[in-house]
Design a protein that fits this description.
- The chain is of the alpha+beta class.
- The protein folds into two domains: 232 residues, Zn peptidases (Aminopeptidase); 81 residues, Beta Barrel (Elongation Factor Tu (Ef-tu), domain 3).
- Strands 1-2-12-3-13-16-14-15 form an eight-stranded mixed beta sheet, sandwiched between helices. It has a six-stranded antiparallel β-barrel with strand order 4-5-8-7-6-9.
- Strand 1 and strand 2 form a beta hairpin.
- The protein is globular and about 65 Å long.
- The chain starts with a helix and ends with a helix.
- The structure holds zinc ion (ZN).
Length: 332
């Protein structure tokens, strides 16, 4: 079930460049459901499920496995850790956060008091791991180790789930389920569980070049405009997945965008039209490789993106899965 797949994936530790735990979990889930699997130098997991049509198109669908995190840059003599961001860590979202390292060491992410009325920046952050001094701290973590927001997963109302790694494990869950449930589909699905998206679409860029698909699709979260004081983008939770028209990295190729609208119509799923004035997804990495590849993105509306409480609505997830199951059959 989509909800169970999602919860399993949300608990896997995996900041950019250290996605191996997520990769192993997905490999286990897909065992027996796909025709082949491989990994590449950057850690992308690339799986294929062959289409039945003689003229099957090769559709690369990419969902990134990594999530944002913090990397230790220095250990102070009092035992506090100085950090830098791995991806888009917001200052407002990082005050007094419970964080965890891969080896299980836990800490509190804090921001030191500022002099005057300056604005906090990343160098004002530190992690308190409970060490009395630098020696004790060095016995727990090293410079270069990464931490992520502790995977606190909770349900809100009937349909909503929040967790720190929702961006982008919700899309990984969708891609896993698509590969499990697509049966005798017309086109070949090349599922790419990509790495290092949060630091610049790096995994998908090399995967797209290597795969050289006929069509590309990114699966990712998008921002929201339905909470107090927030209107842009015009996206609501629970109103259906969103077909990306434009973001800061890509103008979706019309044929891919329109195939998504057609798939939604066939699947009888309401979709939203997404124009995001910032951000980018793996869809762009595919579109901009080689001589250019037709590509688009299907988005899951997500509130509070890049906080420790990224929230989605499972009805949007169910809708997205239906759209994808049709999409892989209608593209020609
Ligand atoms: Zn993302």
């Amino acid at each position: 079930m989509l909800r169970d797949t999602l919860k399993t994936l949300l608990s896997a530790w995996g900041p950019s460049g250290s996605e191996h735990n997520v990769q192993v979990t997905i490999k286990e889930m897909l065992h027996g459901h796909v025709d082949n699997m491989r990994t590449d130098v950057l850690g992308n997991l690339i799986v294929e499920k062959f289409g039945v049509d003689d003229n099957a198109k090769r559709i690369m669908i990419s969902a990134h496995m990594d999530h944002i995190g913090l990397i230790v840059t220095a250990i102070e003599k009092e035992g506090f850790l100085r950090v830098s961001n791995v991806g888009g860590i917001g200052m407002k979202q990082s005050e007094f956060r419970h964080v965890v390292f891969e080896n299980g060491v836990e800490g509190v992410l804090c921001s030191q008091p500022l002099e005057g009325d300056g604005k906090a920046v990343i160098k004002d952050l530190f992690i308190d791991i409970g060490a009395a001094d630098a020696d004790e701290a060095r016995g727990m973590v090293q410079v270069g180790d990464m931490a992520v927001y502790s995977p606190d997963i909770f349900t809100l109302g009937k349909h909503r789930i929040a967790a720190p790694a929702m961006d982008n494990r919700c899309a990984c869950a969708l891609l896993v389920e698509l590969l499990m449930y697509a049966e005798d589909q017309k086109n070949t699905i090349i599922g790419v569980f990509s790495t290092q998206e949060e630091v610049g679409l790096r995994g998908a860029s090399v995967a797209a070049y290597a795969v050289n698909p006929d069509i590309g699709l990114g699966l990712d979260v998008t921002a929201w405009g339905d909470t107090p004081g927030t209107k842009i983008p015009d996206i609501k939770l629970g109103a259906g997945p969103a077909v990306k028209i434009k973001d800061n990295s890509m103008i979706a190729t019309p044929l891919v965008r329109d195939a998504l609208f057609e798939a939604a119509l066939e699947a009888d799923v309401a979709v939203q039209r997404e124009v995001l004035p910032f951000g980018g997804t793996d869809g762009a990495a595919i579109q901009h490789t080689r001589g250019g590849i037709p590509a688009g993105t299907l988005s899951i509306p997500c509130r509070y993106v890049h906080s420790a409480c990224e929230m989605i609505d499972m009805r949007d997830m169910d809708g997205a899965l239906k759209v994808l199951l049709h999409f892989v059959n209608i593209v020609e």
